[in-house]
Here is the input.
Amino acid sequence: MSLTSKLRVHFVTEDDPLYVIQFFETFFDEYPRDELDVIGITIQRAFKESRLATVKRVFPLYGPVGFARLLARVAGRRLRGRSIARVAGAEGISLVQTESVNDPEFVRRVTVSKPDVIVSVAAPEIFKDEILQSARLGCINIHSGRLPKYRGMMPTFWQMRFGEACATVTVHEMAPKLDAGAVLGTAECPIRERDSLHRVMIETKREGARLLIRTLRELAAGTAVTRPLDMTNASYYSFPKRRDARILRERGHRML
Here is the structure.
């Protein structure tokens, strides 16, 4: 890339009006438009499952009252027209839709647009080799957990559940193995003695946007430094259960 050209970035994310949107609102408020060119964004359905399946997954975690409050917050933001698609539209960024990032036609369309880097922000599926290789500098991911200890789903929850003092946000290269690519940068968000998962998730999304901006500028300047992960003692966490939420509450935290 020449000294005068901008780094071309394509985002892949999920439709989330509560938390992921915090990332994009912060990113678009603060990113240097003279250095970075966001050429497209792909927004997929959260979890890649039916709404009923999502309810069955989330309801036990929050309980009846918490789940009702969560739905009310989601509904309120949607009624106000708050969405990642609207944020992208206000920025004049093209929406590139697909059912799967691994679909050959999607890979072709993205490759033709010549991105320097593809950024996953809570993308709901695993990237296979073809999409991983479609950008000049590859694909990178924003993960709201310290790697490789907190690989997997809802890392912010697990860091609070296990009593960490901070939630670590990690930007790392994507590899065929989930959450196993080399680290490009980290940022820490303090967890208060009595905190809420809601607040910490918002904070990690905002700090993740700022960390990504720094990382992309380093990639553009050719100064990015990667740190390979030692996977010897790596851990992986799936979606938390009711008992995990109970332990989080016993630590003095709350979900919302």
In short: The chain has one domain: 7-250. The mean pLDDT is 94.
